[in-house]
Amino acid sequence: MTIVMRSRRVGSYAKGYRGEKRAREFLEGEGYYVVESRGSHGTFDLVAVPFAAVSRATDGLVRLIQVKTGEPPRKGDRGRLRTMARKFDAGRVLCELWWFPDYQTKPVKEVISWD
Predict the structure, then answer these.
(1) On the chain, which terminus has fewer CB atoms closer than 10 Å, C or N?
(2) Ramachandran bin of 56, using left for φ above 0, alpha for ψ from -120 to 50, beta for the remaining angles
(3) 59-92 in b/e burial notation, b at 16+ Cβ within 10 A?
(4) pLDDT of 13-70, one tens digit each?
């Protein structure tokens, strides 16, 4: 008797969805109100707005976050985020790139600079 086992490969959509959910849970645990822009294919996946108590500790910065999973972010990803970051007031908005490497539960975080 031969037993055939199927491998459970996770598609890129499911992997990305899971990464966005993890990032959202982390931010909500830090005291942010988080809005997801799933399905829009926009520049940022998450918008995190601090509640009053967090606002005092973080200078009230709104965080715009692009979440990547699996493969490391490409140079073009950072360039696109940098272009968008220049359109915002640097004193009020923080643009970030979060990358969840395969089999990791914590993201590698990178703040995208304006220059």
Answers:
(1) N
(2) alpha
(3) eebbbbbbbbbeeeeeeebbeebeebbeeeeeee
(4) 788 888 899 999 999 988 899 999 866 677 899 999 988 766 666 677 889 999 999 8
Contacts (Cβ under 8 Å, ≥6 apart) of 46? 20, 23, 24, 27, 34, 35, 36, 37, 63, 64, 65, 67
In this predicted model, which residue has the larger pLDDT, 91 or 24?
Answer: 24
Range of the domain at 36: 12-111
Q: Is residue 67 part of a domain?
A: yes
User: What is the total count of domains within the chain?
Assistant: 1
- The CATH number assigned to the domain holding 36 equals 3.40.1350.10
* For residue 4, pLDDT beyond 60: no
pLDDT above 70 (res 90): no
